[in-house]
Amino acid sequence: MSAGRPSEGAGCITWWGFSPARDLLSTGPVRPEGEVNILLVGSGDPRHILKTTAGLQDKDSLHVWVIENSMEVVARQLLLLYLTLTPQESMGLNEKTEVFLEVFGNSEVRSQTADTLGCVASQLSMSVTETLDTATHPCLDTTLLKFRERDELLRIFKRWMQPHSSSSSSGCSAPILMSKAWDYRVRQHLGTRYDSKKGCFDWDITMKLHEKGCRVINKQQYFQWREQGVAFEMREGVYQTTNPTLLSSRVFSQKGNKVAVTGYWGDIVSSPYLSFGIETDDESLLETQNGQHIKTAQDISISNVQALFQSLYSRQGCSITAQSNVEAEGSKECDPKSITLNVCMSPIFFFFFSDLMNLNGISVTFLPLDSLNKLPEKQKYSHFFNAVYFSVSCVHQLGPMLRQIAAPDAVLIVELAKFLLDLNTEQEKGFAKRVVDIAQEAGFEPWHEAKCDDVHVVFIPQRK
């Protein structure tokens, strides 16, 4: 890992996307209506799911199918979606937004957020047990994952139940200090430039992010994130508890042997502000004074996430029994450590899971990691998806098989490399050209009527 290696700053695991949230059904020539199916490949976080759901008409239904590169990312997506579905009666809008953004973009969180995370992890561990053949909640479905993948999810959730520690490669419980893991990544990325890191941070935000249109990202907040990994500090509190959802294993070669090392292996350059914090429909949040933005990317992230949550409340359509409410309250008050001991024994976790909002007509299904090339083999997915999204890290998986599973009027949306800051201008343009070549080889052509957007490129099936 050298400072000069292209895209090393982006890391080898995608905890958040490198583009703003998009309503994927509003990107093509015709907006599909009725029952709509979308395939997300490597999106990394649920930003597109939330944004697309917010744009739905009441009569529409949306089924999102998700394929990721690792079970750690699947686990985090489930966690963030779980928090999204928490009813307003259980967690106020402001608190819910704060917890969501803390878990989403902070390497270290407040102790109370870590406790909430542990409780949620205990609920999720029950939802993925291999003894369940039907989805525990109508909006979240992991039943199509392989047994070994569900076992891996269970292992991850159990590790999250103890947010102050993490399992080492030897299988023993050993504390992982995120501050050290983060600093290790920064040192390895900058190399000899580490001693002048503040200058490197300043160059990346001033000459790269700001020049790419992200002037709303505040320099002080960006510096803090680059230094400590804390992007969202929304109230007075101590942000010193490791966020276990941002820890993962990476395999290295040492003297001919493969060694798995637990640490932080995600983005340390582009920032989690990109997903929710650089675009907004509220023009007042983009006002400037003396050439400086009054509001920050954190302010915009809070506003956008709150607006998305509020739009979901209108689709809520579940009712729960009084018994469920009482037992759910009991589960919320319990200590995460006691949950760990009783997670496989007590039925109250099913009640608590059913206490989540049921968004009418909305469902998210997670597919096996290796399922993309296998979908065409199943009749169910023949010309099935109305929209398909590929992240910048998964473009290489795009192939001719896509035409077999894409609907005749489907749109293909591909994330570009604009916000991979380690790439220079020529490399960024070269990547965009390569995306067009790959898509055309797969049977798609650029949709030239799409709004100019150098963050994504939109394709439609080639005309015969």
Describe the structure.
This is Dynein axonemal assembly factor 3. It is found in: Dynein axonemal particle. The protein has 464 residues and is α/β, with parallel strands linked by helices. It has 2 domains: 1-318 and 356-464, no CATH class; 322-354, no CATH class. The chain is 37% helix and 16% strand. The strands form 5 sheets. Strands 4-12-2-1-13-14-16-15 form an 8-stranded mixed beta sheet, with helices on both faces. Mean pLDDT is 87; it is low at 1-7, 165-172 and 318-351.
Task: State the helical fraction.
Answer: 25-40%
Low-confidence stretches: 1-7, 165-172, 318-351
> In one word, what is the shape?
globular
> What integer is the average pLDDT?
87
Q: In what order do the strands lie side by side in the largest sheet?
A: 4-12-2-1-13-14-16-15
Whole-angstrom Rg: 22 Å
The structure class reads: alpha/beta
Strand count: 16
